[in-house]
Design a protein that fits this description.
about 210 residues, alpha/beta, Rossmann fold, 8-stranded mixed beta sheet, 6 helices, globular
Amino acid sequence: MRSLQPEHAARWYEDKVRRFGFDHRGLGFRNKSSQDKRFEALLSLGDFAGRRVLDVGCGFGDFLAFLVERDVHPLYTGLDVCEPMIERCEERFPAGAGRFLAGDVLDHEPDQPYDYVVASGLFGLDSPGVRERIVPTLERMFAWSRIGLAVNFLSARYDRQVDGRIYVEPAKAIEAAFALTPAVRLEHNYLPNDFTMYLYKTPAWTGREARTT
C-alpha cells in the first residue's frame, strides 16, 4: 500500500506557504544562503545549458531562477507534490521558461528523456514511510537521467539535529548509489548538515559522455 507521505508532505508545505509566503521559509529552509549552497553543489553535476533537466521537488522553481541568474538556460521541467507550489511556478515564470507538473515522484511517468535529474531537499521532512521511499525514488530518478543525477540529504553526521527532519547516513546513501552505478561521487564539505550525491550513467574513466539528441 502506498505510504501517506506525499499527502503529509503536501500539507506540511502548504502550511509553510500560508505562514511564510513564497520564499525559502515556505520550503523549510532557515535562510536563503543555505539553499544557494545546496544549489551550487547541484551545479557540479554537469553543464545544464540547453540540456533537458528535471527538478524533482522543485518547490517555487528556485533552482530554475538560480540557473537563469547565472545565464544558464536549460530545458527545464519542475515536478512537485504540492499543487500550490506548481501554481506559484506557473505565475512566477514567463511562458516558455519551463514546464511545471504536480505529482508524486513514485507515480510520475516521464513523457520525454531527461539529460540530468536533480533533487534538493526532497527527503528532508520526516513522516510515515518516507525512509522506505528513498531507495525507490533514487532508482526512478536515476533511470530517467541520460547523463546523471544529483540529490542532497541532511547528514546523520551532523551533531545538532532538529526534530521532524530525516538525517541520512552518508555511507548508507553511497551504498544505495553503488547498487545503481559504479560512477558515484559524494560531497560533504559545503555545509555542516548536508551532503550531495552524484550518480552518472557513463563513468568518467571511459572518457565518453552520453550523446545528446
